[in-house]
Specification:
By secondary structure, the protein is an alpha/beta fold. It has six helices and five strands.
């Protein structure tokens, strides 16, 4: 039975590993003529600290992004990636959301009935990974579909 994918989700945090993952996402999108969804999640500490006092919650809520801010982020995402996606036969979409990255990636994938998720192995911040766990690992454990985690083979550990 041959595998086929119609919707592929590429997740970016603008790290080197995310840039490398784009190559795989583009290749898969072309091979399967799949629609490519490009997602960036702006990390929101507010959503992972539900036990804050009301005063602390108000301070943290101020740090969340408005719809206008998210739209500006989407425009930046388009500026950066649209030239690389030109010619994709299945088409593409861009989305920026605010929240806990692995939760938002899994939520977005389910809501859009994504068949395949592609993301880089290491993000842009080692401190976040130590504190909150690996986004890639959490996505792989919780996603309803196939997940590909890529790493640039020339990157030295």
């Amino acid at each position: 039975m041959a595998m086929t994918y119609k919707k592929i989700l590429y997740c970016t945090d603008f790290s080197e590993d995310a840039d490398y993952a784009l190559k795989s996402a583009l290749d898969l999108s072309e091979k399967y003529q799949a629609r490519l969804y490009c997602l960036h999640v702006v990390h929101s500490a507010y959503q992972i600290m539900p036990d804050l006092s009301p005063m602390e919650k108000n301070k943290e809520a101020e740090k969340t992004l408005s719809a206008e801010d998210l739209e500006k982020g989407k425009v930046k995402l388009k500026e950066l990636y649209e030239p690389k996606l030109a010619g994709l036969t299945g088409g593409y979409e861009f989305q920026v959301v605010c929240g806990v990255p692995f939760m938002e990636i899994v939520r977005y994938a389910r809501a859009n009935e994504v068949d395949f998720i592609v993301l880089g192995a290491a993000g842009s911040s080692n401190i976040k990974r130590i504190t909150f766990g690996s986004t890639a690992e959490n996505v792989a454990r919780r996603a309803h579909c196939t997940v590909m985690i890529t790493r640039d083979p020339e990157k030295v550990f």
